[in-house]
Amino acid sequence: MAIVKSKLLKKLSKNYPNFLKKDLEKLINIILNEIKQTLKRGERVELRGFGIFSTNIQKARISRNPK
Length: 67
Fold this sequence. Notes:
The protein is mostly helical. It is 46% helix and 9% strand. It has helices at residues 5-15, 21-40; strands at 45-47, 51-53.
């Protein structure tokens, strides 16, 4: 399941009408940037009740074009 940032913002603003949209957008950007920076450092990110994000390096493989 994929979700777009704009849909996430709409859903959050619907669930939390007391917050301004620009504040919710800043919050989303801060959270996503922290996740990106953590993954760049090679660490894993665990969001309880949602999932775990981690990076995995795969070795290069030799393949052929069947054409």
